[in-house]
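Q: I have 79 residues here and want to know how they pack in 3D. Can you give me a structure?
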Amino acid sequence: MYFSSASGAFAMVYEVDMNVTAPTEIYFNPEVWYPNGYKLTISHPKKGNQMLGTWMTSPMAHYLNLNFFDIFDYNKEPC
């Protein structure tokens, strides 16, 4: 995981596990770090291309949840 307090850049890599039933939850503070908005990309860390069938939801302020359309496509893959 990486976070730059100078630029607000954030990056993380983790392995998808379909046995985990809770969503992947990311806390962030848009008012402090991203007052002009932010760009979010979910991609393959080694291939660099965007992961299809993924999306983010914001169930409550300051939280993002990572979701998969078909988690079987990414099980045991780095994200």
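Q: Anything worth noting?
A: The helical segments are 30-33. DSSP finds one helix and five strands in the chain.
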